[in-house]
Every structure is written in structure tokens, then in C-alpha cells.
Amino acid sequence: MSTREGNLEAPTRHPVDWKGADFYDQASCEKEMERIFDICHGCRRCVSLCHSFPTLFDLVDATADGEVHGVAKKDYSSVVDQCFLCDLCYLTKCPYVPPHPWNLDFPHTMLRAKAIKFKNGEVAAGEKLLASTDTHGQFAGIPIVVQTVNALNKTKPVRKLLDSALHVHPDAWLPELATQRFRWSADKRGYATTVTNGERTPGKVAIFATCYVNYNEPGIGHDLIKLLNHNDIPYEIVEKESCCGMPKLELGDLDGVAKHKEANIPVLANYAKEGYAVLSAIPSCTLMFKQELPLLFPGDADVAAVQKAMFDPFEYLMARHKDGLLKTDFKQALGKVSYHIPCHGRVQKIGKKTEEVFKLIGQTVGVQLNTVERCSGHAGTYGVKTAFHAVAMKIGKPVFKAMAKDEPDFISSDCALAGHHIAQGMASNSLPAAKLQHPLSLVRIAYGL
């Protein structure tokens, strides 16, 4: 029987066999990469997604006969380095993913190559530190130290030092440390005590703060709390937490991912078993618990329990609305809003839930919404690295232009890092300026809170 061309079935994902006998075997990985690269070269459908594919196709086109077998194995790493594991090729573009018999999984093959690189000691200390968000976040909330670090990070000598030591581009936007951590400043529990479960939603929420909200932008977390309190939804801040592990995953440090998993899953599983919805306001963190950990640790009952309980905040709010349990007493119009859907939100397979909430607001008080569904180019630490910052700005340029359409009052993205990257890109391209607000903050404004 001949192999059919393409695939119209929903993608399925196989677990990552990272503890298998040959997972870290370089030759075996290169053989699989050659197989996949040959399929990608013959298709080229993903050329506009990230820089991995143009890099691959340029390497192929430069060979004597224009075929993958002519590409030196040592050059495969240049393709791997450009992959930031957004998963868009797998879930939105590729016609050859499982259940197609070609069984093509580009992102997880790149993850395997990254893991081998990490295991072989080929990842620099600076990259490891950059991915250790719990480590450099420890300065947040310490009086004087925070102000000093934030001030120094804006000076040319320190940015030059960050470039040489951590390979952080001197022009890349960097988040400031918060003067007060979210977990220190937020009420541990909400004032609502009555739990009203819906058909689709648990009636109480456990908030997984995330490193970014805790250390950098606690206002996002406080706005989430205001929305929960306004809708009479009891909440708790998760008792204790570690980094979700996504920065370690992007680096190929799977043992580091496992360490964070062992810190988080037992705690979150208790909330899940007690009937809480677990909410995370950073799409990458949410995706880690929804997809990556279940694929890395298949058969782990606690991981599966957390996966089932984990919600994107807007996924939860829209489900509450469908349960007839979300207040729509919006009071303030938002004007013109350019909203960006980040990649790690798109691949959660939940639809455009943030857009749906904006449209609810529009039905009551009015919103002129411009939705942009394309990669901003930031992609975790990718966009700040010296080697990739210029490419990240190039990838994001169509988004910057689209976000500036009709001169919005606000620009917004579920991914706070992408939002700042977009704001920087708009400024560097001399596009009209607009106030940056997280979607949760815009809903809080619409409620008049």
C-alpha cells in the first residue's frame, strides 16, 4: 500500500522517550534528523514560521545536488539552535505528523538534539544561568538591591558585561525585578468562600504564580486576583512552587526539568485532587503542565491530574461564562486594542479564549479589536540572546506592523515577554506608540476595578 500524501487527521503526540537506550546517541539522532530534514526539504510549508526552516533550506540549496545528504552533520546544529520549541510547525502546519506513517515530530527531534548537546557539556554557563529563572529572580523584592540592579541593567557598561558573560544582546529588552514579589504581597486566599462548581469549571482556583509574575510583573497576578474576587471565586496562592521547567526544556536540560517537576507536581496534584482549577498567567508555564510534562512523564498519575486541572486564565473565564457563572457587568470601554496571540497559547488547543473575553466586553461597553496571530519572535530567551536578537526582531516585524494598525490605544499579549518585545519592535520601527497592558489588566480596567 502506498503512503498517502499529507494528513487531514488531528495531530497526535507520542511521549518523549528521553530515558530510552539510544535517546542520547548522537549518530541515531543525526540519522533521524536527516530523515526529517529530507521530508521538510521536499515540502517547505513551514518556511515562514521560524528561522530553523530557512536555515535548513539554505544549507540544502548550497549543496552540489540540492539534497539533504550533502549537508554536513556538523551543520545540523545551526538548524537546532534556531528552534525555540514553539510547536507551531507540529500543530498548525505539518501534514506528516502522527498519525501519518512518516511520524514526523520536528520539535521533539530538535529537543533530543538539544538534550544531547546539553549532556555533552556543550552549553555555556551563561546560557544555563539565563535559564535559571529561580536563581536570578531571588534579587526581586529586596530593598535597595532591586533598585540598584534595575538601574545598572540600563547602563551601557553593564549591558556590555551581560553581552560578554551571558550573551544577552545590548539592545534587547530585559524585564525589571519587582520591588515586591507577588507571592509576598498577594493575599494568600480570596474573600469569597462559597464554591460554585459549573459543568465545565471547578468553583475554586489555585494560582500558580510563575517566575515572571512573582519576580518581574506582580501586577498581572494581582489583576487576576481582582477578577476572581469580583466573580466571587475562592482562590488560594499555591503553597509553594518552583520554576515550571520550560526554560530548562528549551535548553535541553531534561534532568533540570525533572527536578522542577518533582518540586511542583506533588503540590499541584494535591490541589487538583481537592477539586481546584489551577491557573497560570504565563502561556509557556501553562503549556508545560498541559503538554510537555505529560509527554516526558507518561503514566505518572499526578502529572495527569495536574494536566486535567490546569487552565489558561481566559480558558477558565470563558468556561465560567458558558456555565453562566461569569459576571459581565463591564463599565469602561477599552477603545482600540491590538491583541497578540502568543505561540504557546495557540498550541494549547483551546481556541481564541482571550479574544472571546474581549468580545464579551465589546458587547457591553465596546472594544475595537485587532487580533494578530503570528509569532512575535521573542520565544523565551531566544529574543534576548546576542546570536538571535536581530533574527527575532526580523521575525517579529510583520507582527509589529500589524499591531500598529489603526493606531491602537492599547497593545496586549497573553505572553508578557512577547508584549514587551512587540512594544520594542514598534518603537524601533517608528510605529505609533500605544500603552502596553496584559489582557488580564485590560479586563480589570473594563470591570472598573
Please report which band the strand proportion falls in: under 5%, 5-15%, 15-25%, 25-35%, 35-45% or over 45%.
5-15%
CATH fold name of the domain at 328-447, please? Rossmann fold
The N- to C-terminal Cα distance equals: 63 Å
Number of E strands: 8
CATH class of the domain at 328-447, anyone? Alpha Beta
Summarize the structure.
This protein is α/β, with parallel strands linked by helices.
Mind explaining what this structure looks like?
With 449 residues, the chain is an alpha/beta fold. Among the domains are: 94 residues; 120 residues, Rossmann fold, CATH 3.40.50.
Features:
alpha/beta, Rossmann fold, four-stranded parallel sheet, 449 residues
Q: Helices, strands, pairings?
A:
Layout: H1 26-43, H2 52-61, H3 76-81, H4 88-93, H5 106-119, H6 125-130, H7 133-136, H8 145-152, H9 156-166, H10 182-185, E1 205-208, H11 211-215, H12 218-230, E2 235-237, H13 246-251, H14 254-273, E3 277-280, H15 283-296, H16 301-309, E4 310-311, H17 313-322, E5 335-340, H18 343-346, H19 353-364, E6 367-372, H20 389-403, E7 410-413, H21 416-428, E8 435-436, H22 439-447
Parallel strand pairs: 1-2, 1-3, 3-4, 5-6, 5-7, 7-8
